[in-house]
Amino acid sequence: MNDSLTQTLKQLRLSGLLQTLDLRLQEAAGNSLNHAEFLELILQDELVVRSDRQLQRRVKAAGFRELKTLEDFDWSFNPSLKKKQIYDLATGRFIRESRDLLLIGPPGVGKSHVVQALGYQALKVGFVVLYRSIFDVVRDFLHDEALGQADKLLAKYLKPDLLIVDDMGMKQLPKRSGEYLFEIIMRRYETRSTIMTSNRPLEDWGKLLGDVPSATAILDRFLHHAEIVRVTGKSYRLRNQKPGSESATDESNPTVEINGSEGEATGSKPAKAPLGAKGNGDGSKPAKAPLGSDGGDRDSKPAKAPLGSKVEKTEDPDR
Fold it and tell me: Does residue 247 sit within a domain?
């Protein structure tokens, strides 16, 4: 390929075509392709590259915590999650019909994986997607309201074809959280699709939001056209945990800072240990004291001599 053609392709921003043109020229010569066949091949190459780049931009804009796919999900671990039902949702029909989706179940059963995978699949078929944890939503509104930019932020939440709000029920939320969430759900009602996940029963939402009337209004609209998927089973994160280990199994009330720095709710990297697990700084665990002992040195007693044996007295040489 000569330099003039290379420069022309760069000016036209046909980088996909530029990457494969030499190979396609050889293919055309070796297979005696006519001009129309050759042109179709190089244009398809350009479209593939543009499509891949567009998907990458959409994935970045969606803000997924992690990029998950349905193919990577372990369907055998929690059989309560029906593969056929989830793959039917992955077609995007519920998005076209402006219906909603709620996944409810205990921590670790795969809710976040599934909703992020559904979001990624929606991106692949051309929908605009936004993923946020409930903590991100509240923090966004608290920040932008203080700056007088709440209307601009609300538009960001109303625009996507699919909005995913994850981690509902992890912790009681700050004041006015119910107002922010209600505004989003009310504005998207019957116009856009929303997915939510919850670790807690729906009757607890009033307590979590600190606003029973808002919680009632949110659920009234959200559940009207929603499909509810209830997931049961054990935590996938703790699947390799040995019985009797010290790791905590209750993830339902982690420490989360709305403004800040802890936990995956704020977008930081997940900790290596299960949430709430206890341990020393080097990762080792202290040995357990025998059952019935108090483990302290102050009350320790000397070992008893074997039954019937004589105990020799040691005389003090100074006496």
Answer: no
